[in-house]
Design brief:
Elements: E1 6-17, E2 20-31, E3 35-39, H1 46-52, E4 63-71, E5 74-75, H2 83-89, E6 90-93, H3 104-114, H4 120-133, H5 137-140, H6 153-166, E7 171-175, H7 183-196, E8 201-205, H8 209-215, E9 218-223, E10 226-232, H9 233-238, H10 243-249
Parallel strand pairs: 3-8, 3-9, 6-7, 7-8
Antiparallel strand pairs: 1-2, 1-4, 4-5, 9-10
Helix pairs in contact: 3-4, 3-6, 4-6, 6-7
Length: 254
């Protein structure tokens, strides 16, 4: 039987930048060990929505959220929530690779040390394990003391994924992780996503329809801050309920 445990539940979400309403009454579920893709034209609210899931939008002045987001039944906007711990549990990988200007090894060990881990052997094994999970170990194991900035774009992005994995998240958010990568690197990241969903719950923002069709189990189509349709990916791409969804996924606009 298909596992459809709800990991994150967003209900009646409205979000404002000052007086501008960027998201309008969005409700959707994100299921455990599934990849959920958010698609839609630029400016439709995809990145705004994904950043609500680990409270990254808290950092924006004059922004305001209405509605509820629950992670495993717990309201993440409750005042009692430890936001630092939330961001450990719900990791994020951004559009442009953003490794620290440190060595490959330190990029991963840093997050562990900040979390108070001092055991060198544990850190070492975690660095190796995270790089293996991010399908990068084979390429960098002999150059861990090189600067991370010497890596190619695709390798840097996988390093950022390894960095997110090192602190043992439960959910990983990917905000257009392949936008600045070449086709070969993109394919590696897509293969990695399919591997990672065995252990993690994944949400990905993508402009690329083919990518959403290839990697995701569920797809949400947003337009002008509204959720037009949310369904299993196969249905969104073959028998969408909304005419607007059909026109978007077939490339008639966007």
């Amino acid at each position: 039987m298909e596992n459809n445990k709800i990991r994150i539940k967003a209900k009646n979400i409205n979000f404002y930048y000052g007086k501008i309403r960027a998201l309008k009454n969005i409700s959707l579920n994100i299921y455990q060990n599934k990849v959920t893709a958010l698609i839609g034209p630029s400016g439709c609210g995809k990145s705004t929505f994904i950043r609500l899931l680990n409270r990254m939008n808290d950092l924006i002045a004059n922004s305001q959220i209405e509605g509820n987001i629950h992670l495993d039944g717990e309201d993440i906007y409750n005042q009692e929530i430890d936001v630092v711990d939330l961001r450990r549990r719900v990791g994020m990988v951004f559009q442009k690779p953003n490794p620290f200007p440190k060595t490959i090894y330190q990029n991963i060990s840093y997050g562990l040390e900040v979390n108070g881990i001092k055991d060198k052997f544990f850190i070492q094994s975690k660095v190796e394990e995270s790089l293996k999970k991010a399908a990068l170990w084979g390429e960098v194991k002999d150059r861990l003391n090189d600067s991370a900035l010497k890596l190619s774009g695709g390798q840097q992005q996988r390093l950022c994924i390894a960095r997110a994995l090192s602190v043992e998240p439960e959910v990983i958010l990917f905000d257009e992780p392949c936008a600045s990568l070449d086709p070969v690197s993109t394919r590696k990241i897509e293969e990695l996503l399919l591997e990672l969903k065995k252990d993690y719950t994944i949400v990905i923002v993508t402009h690329n329809m083919q990518q959403a069709a290839r990697v995701s189990d569920y797809t949400a189509f947003l337009y002008l801050g509204e959720l037009i349709e949310f369904e299993k990916t196969e249905k969104i791409f073959t028998v969408p309920k909304s005419k607007m969804t059909e026109e978007y996924v077939t490339g008639k606009f966007g």
